[in-house]
Write a structure and sequence with these properties.
Length: 176
Protein backbone atom coordinates (compact mmCIF):
# COMPACT_ATOMS: atom_id res chain seq x y z
CA UNK A 1 0.00 0.00 0.00
CA UNK A 2 1.45 3.34 -1.07
CA UNK A 3 1.92 6.01 1.55
CA UNK A 4 -0.57 8.83 1.34
CA UNK A 5 1.14 12.14 0.55
CA UNK A 6 1.06 14.57 3.43
CA UNK A 7 0.41 18.23 2.79
CA UNK A 8 2.86 20.46 4.56
CA UNK A 9 1.58 23.43 6.56
CA UNK A 10 3.20 25.76 4.03
CA UNK A 11 1.39 24.03 1.16
CA UNK A 12 -1.91 24.19 3.05
CA UNK A 13 -1.45 27.92 3.66
CA UNK A 14 -0.54 28.48 0.02
CA UNK A 15 -3.68 26.60 -1.03
CA UNK A 16 -5.85 28.75 1.20
CA UNK A 17 -4.16 31.91 -0.13
CA UNK A 18 -4.96 30.80 -3.69
CA UNK A 19 -8.56 30.02 -2.64
CA UNK A 20 -8.93 33.52 -1.16
CA UNK A 21 -7.46 35.13 -4.26
CA UNK A 22 -9.80 33.18 -6.53
CA UNK A 23 -12.80 34.03 -4.34
CA UNK A 24 -11.88 37.71 -4.52
CA UNK A 25 -11.47 37.51 -8.31
CA UNK A 26 -14.92 35.93 -8.64
CA UNK A 27 -16.83 38.17 -6.22
CA UNK A 28 -15.25 41.63 -6.30
CA UNK A 29 -16.06 42.42 -9.97
CA UNK A 30 -19.70 41.49 -9.27
CA UNK A 31 -19.76 43.77 -6.23
CA UNK A 32 -18.17 46.66 -8.09
CA UNK A 33 -20.44 46.14 -11.11
CA UNK A 34 -23.46 44.11 -10.00
CA UNK A 35 -25.08 44.32 -13.43
CA UNK A 36 -22.21 42.35 -14.96
CA UNK A 37 -23.47 38.85 -15.80
CA UNK A 38 -21.64 35.90 -14.34
CA UNK A 39 -22.14 32.45 -12.94
CA UNK A 40 -22.39 33.68 -9.34
CA UNK A 41 -25.12 36.11 -10.40
CA UNK A 42 -26.97 33.11 -11.84
CA UNK A 43 -26.59 31.24 -8.55
CA UNK A 44 -28.03 34.25 -6.74
CA UNK A 45 -30.88 34.40 -9.26
CA UNK A 46 -31.82 30.79 -8.53
CA UNK A 47 -32.11 31.54 -4.81
CA UNK A 48 -33.96 34.79 -5.57
CA UNK A 49 -36.61 33.02 -7.64
CA UNK A 50 -36.82 30.17 -5.13
CA UNK A 51 -37.58 32.76 -2.44
CA UNK A 52 -40.65 33.90 -4.35
CA UNK A 53 -41.90 30.35 -4.74
CA UNK A 54 -41.17 29.31 -1.14
CA UNK A 55 -42.96 32.34 0.31
CA UNK A 56 -45.98 32.49 -2.03
CA UNK A 57 -48.24 31.29 0.75
CA UNK A 58 -47.44 34.35 2.91
CA UNK A 59 -49.10 37.00 0.74
CA UNK A 60 -48.05 39.40 -1.98
CA UNK A 61 -45.69 41.63 0.02
CA UNK A 62 -43.77 38.74 1.56
CA UNK A 63 -43.65 36.97 -1.82
CA UNK A 64 -42.15 40.09 -3.43
CA UNK A 65 -39.64 40.58 -0.60
CA UNK A 66 -38.92 36.86 -0.47
CA UNK A 67 -36.80 36.86 -3.60
CA UNK A 68 -34.27 39.37 -2.33
CA UNK A 69 -34.49 38.06 1.23
CA UNK A 70 -33.73 34.44 0.34
CA UNK A 71 -31.02 35.55 -2.09
CA UNK A 72 -29.24 37.19 0.86
CA UNK A 73 -30.25 34.76 3.61
CA UNK A 74 -28.80 31.65 1.91
CA UNK A 75 -25.19 32.90 1.89
CA UNK A 76 -25.74 34.52 5.31
CA UNK A 77 -26.86 31.13 6.68
CA UNK A 78 -23.75 29.52 5.18
CA UNK A 79 -21.57 32.14 6.88
CA UNK A 80 -23.33 31.52 10.20
CA UNK A 81 -22.89 27.76 9.82
CA UNK A 82 -19.16 28.05 9.19
CA UNK A 83 -18.77 30.46 12.11
CA UNK A 84 -20.68 28.09 14.41
CA UNK A 85 -18.29 25.32 13.34
CA UNK A 86 -15.38 27.70 14.02
CA UNK A 87 -14.29 27.49 10.40
CA UNK A 88 -13.38 31.14 10.06
CA UNK A 89 -11.51 30.87 6.77
CA UNK A 90 -14.51 29.25 5.06
CA UNK A 91 -16.82 31.81 6.70
CA UNK A 92 -14.65 34.58 5.28
CA UNK A 93 -14.82 33.15 1.77
CA UNK A 94 -18.58 32.69 1.92
CA UNK A 95 -18.96 36.25 3.22
CA UNK A 96 -17.61 37.33 -0.16
CA UNK A 97 -20.56 35.53 -1.77
CA UNK A 98 -22.85 37.37 0.66
CA UNK A 99 -21.33 40.66 -0.50
CA UNK A 100 -21.92 39.72 -4.13
CA UNK A 101 -25.53 38.86 -3.36
CA UNK A 102 -26.10 42.12 -1.46
CA UNK A 103 -24.67 44.09 -4.39
CA UNK A 104 -27.11 42.39 -6.74
CA UNK A 105 -30.04 43.27 -4.49
CA UNK A 106 -28.74 46.84 -4.24
CA UNK A 107 -28.71 47.17 -8.03
CA UNK A 108 -32.23 45.73 -8.21
CA UNK A 109 -33.54 48.18 -5.62
CA UNK A 110 -31.88 51.16 -7.28
CA UNK A 111 -33.37 50.11 -10.64
CA UNK A 112 -36.93 50.31 -9.30
CA UNK A 113 -37.77 53.82 -10.61
CA UNK A 114 -36.41 53.18 -14.13
CA UNK A 115 -37.14 49.43 -14.37
CA UNK A 116 -34.40 48.95 -16.95
CA UNK A 117 -32.93 45.67 -15.73
CA UNK A 118 -33.86 42.63 -17.80
CA UNK A 119 -36.37 40.51 -15.90
CA UNK A 120 -37.15 36.84 -16.43
CA UNK A 121 -40.73 37.76 -17.26
CA UNK A 122 -39.73 40.48 -19.72
CA UNK A 123 -42.43 42.69 -18.17
CA UNK A 124 -41.13 45.75 -16.27
CA UNK A 125 -44.35 45.81 -14.23
CA UNK A 126 -43.21 42.61 -12.51
CA UNK A 127 -40.16 44.37 -10.98
CA UNK A 128 -40.32 43.34 -7.30
CA UNK A 129 -38.88 46.50 -5.82
CA UNK A 130 -40.90 48.78 -8.08
CA UNK A 131 -44.09 47.02 -6.95
CA UNK A 132 -43.06 47.20 -3.29
CA UNK A 133 -41.93 50.82 -3.28
CA UNK A 134 -44.88 52.06 -5.35
CA UNK A 135 -47.22 50.17 -3.01
CA UNK A 136 -45.59 51.83 -0.01
CA UNK A 137 -45.55 55.24 -1.76
CA UNK A 138 -41.77 55.21 -1.31
CA UNK A 139 -40.30 55.02 -4.82
CA UNK A 140 -38.04 57.94 -3.89
CA UNK A 141 -36.38 55.68 -1.30
CA UNK A 142 -35.02 53.33 -3.98
CA UNK A 143 -31.68 55.11 -4.37
CA UNK A 144 -30.87 55.60 -0.66
CA UNK A 145 -32.03 52.07 0.19
CA UNK A 146 -30.00 50.65 -2.70
CA UNK A 147 -26.94 52.65 -1.62
CA UNK A 148 -27.31 51.29 1.91
CA UNK A 149 -27.43 47.73 0.55
CA UNK A 150 -24.34 48.47 -1.54
CA UNK A 151 -22.58 49.73 1.59
CA UNK A 152 -23.45 46.41 3.25
CA UNK A 153 -22.06 44.59 0.20
CA UNK A 154 -18.74 46.46 0.41
CA UNK A 155 -18.62 45.87 4.17
CA UNK A 156 -19.21 42.13 3.63
CA UNK A 157 -16.35 41.90 1.13
CA UNK A 158 -13.98 43.76 3.42
CA UNK A 159 -15.03 41.79 6.52
CA UNK A 160 -14.91 38.48 4.68
CA UNK A 161 -11.42 39.19 3.40
CA UNK A 162 -10.24 40.32 6.82
CA UNK A 163 -11.79 37.26 8.50
CA UNK A 164 -10.05 34.88 6.10
CA UNK A 165 -6.70 36.68 6.41
CA UNK A 166 -7.02 37.03 10.20
CA UNK A 167 -7.71 33.31 10.45
CA UNK A 168 -4.55 32.56 8.52
CA UNK A 169 -2.43 34.93 10.58
CA UNK A 170 -3.72 33.56 13.88
CA UNK A 171 -3.99 29.86 13.16
CA UNK A 172 -1.38 27.47 14.41
CA UNK A 173 0.46 25.48 11.77
CA UNK A 174 -1.08 22.13 10.94
CA UNK A 175 0.97 19.10 11.90
CA UNK A 176 2.89 17.54 9.05
Amino acid sequence: MAARPVMTPAAARAGRAVALLLALLVTVPGVLNPLQPGWLSNVNLVFHEAGHVLLMWAGETVTLLGGSAVQVLVPAACVATFLARQERFAAGLVTLWLGHSLAGVAAYIRDAPARELPLLTGDPDTHDWWQLLVGWNALGAADPLGRFMLFLAYAAVILGTLLAVWNELNSSPEPA
